[in-house]
Amino acid sequence: MNNPNSPKGDILIVDDVPENLQLLFSMLTERDYEVRRVLSGKQALQVVDMEAPDLILLDIKMPELDGYEVCKILKAQEKTKHIPIIFLSALNDTFDKVRAFDVGGVDYITKPFQIEEVVIRVENQLRLLKMQKEIEFKNKELILLNQDLEAFSHRVSHDLKNKIHIINGFTELITQEFSDQLDSHCKDYFRYIYDEGKRMAEVIQDLLRLSQVQNTELEYSTFNISELVTEISDKLIKENKDSIVDFVITPNIYCWGDLNLMRIVLENLLENACKYTSKTEKPRIEFGTFRKEGKNILFIKDNGVGFDSAMAEKLFTPFHRLHSEKEFKGTGIGLSTVKRIIQRHQGDIWYEAKINQGATFYFYLSEYRHNGVRI
Ligand SMILES: Nc1ncnc2c1ncn2[C@@H]1O[C@H](COP(=O)(O)OP(=O)(O)OP(=O)(O)O)[C@@H](O)[C@H]1O
Ligand SMILES: [Mg+2]
């Protein structure tokens, strides 16, 4: 009885020996495969051109066009290159396995044929093909869904952004132009509208950035990440005149990645480190590196308020915050943007933190090798 799970398909057998053809034909038709057969490489190319099979069993030793040549031609054509080819060869032939795989064969069967072996090898390939098709289909669906979502969020964000700018613009205009006609209550209310509008614009801006990060092409280069950290920390100190943060930066650490995206990562991590040490007596932020399991791990360590790691499961998902807006301002999108960028670099990010004992964020990027030497 046939196995109900076995994938049935359309198989083309190519062999110049009619007895071989007949043997394989009956083996496979008995098992409900649809089988076509031809006696030469030339015929095979014609048949495939008319209607591509799911799988080809291809004899190697044939006059005129041999199996290797037929395989090469099929693999060079866009229309036929995806068809899996299993080579057929006699045990006593000088069969070059490396060449068979080199020209694009996926497997081989040696003559004399053993029924079970032929069936298993054929089924394996058809099953792989089926899985491949399913993955391709799901991928296409996912890409479309993703595109829809991106387009949707982009559209919503842009439209909302414009509307909020208009609301904020008019609020400001009213409070300026009609200042002498508004009592202090009224002015407070308008200030409230304006502040909330500004916050909303910030959230939208962050969301836009999050969706852009997913779409932009990465432009890789080697750069001095220590210099980037120094530049950003200088800017943060300048922006906050009261800052007394002690930055400790290991110099000359080099990195292979997209400079602009990595700037966003460091801005977010360093802004967080500053924000969450702003209530610490002697704030200290350290940037450094160490090597572990063959990777260059980078870290940003602070001695701020920290958090309870047990509660931080969703730290890298948008809008997830461990501190209240009253304690520390923020939208909760920073770390999700950071994580997406690191993932796009085929890297990873994680943390170590304890309440009131600071937080450390560790990350690495996929490494770049030049002539086998790691950079
Ligand atoms: N260095 C840190 N020390 C303590 N808590 C941190 C630190 N970094 C992040 N967190 C916690 O993780 C949460 C998420 O961080 P994230 O950067 O995504 O958001 P945010 O800083 O609140 O807002 P924003 O989107 O404006 O950056 C923060 O709300 C905070 O609770
Ligand atoms: Mg943040």
TrEMBL record:
Lineage: Bacteria, Bacillati, Cyanobacteriota, Cyanophyceae, Oscillatoriophycideae
The Response regulatory domain, residue ranges: 10-126
Reactions catalysed according to its record: ATP + protein L-histidine = ADP + protein N-phospho-L-histidine
Positions carrying 4-aspartylphosphate: 59
Enzyme class: transferase
Keyword match Repeat: no
Name by which UniProt lists this protein: histidine kinase
MF GO annotations: ATP binding; phosphorelay response regulator activity; phosphorelay sensor kinase activity; protein kinase activator activity
GO biological process: osmosensory signaling via phosphorelay pathway
Taxonomic source organism: Cyanobacterium stanieri (strain ATCC 29140 / PCC 7202)
Keywords annotated in UniProt: ATP-binding, Kinase, Nucleotide-binding, Phosphoprotein, Transferase, Two-component regulatory system
Pfam families: HATPase_c, HisKA, Response_reg
EC number(s) from the headed UniProt entry: 2.7.13.3
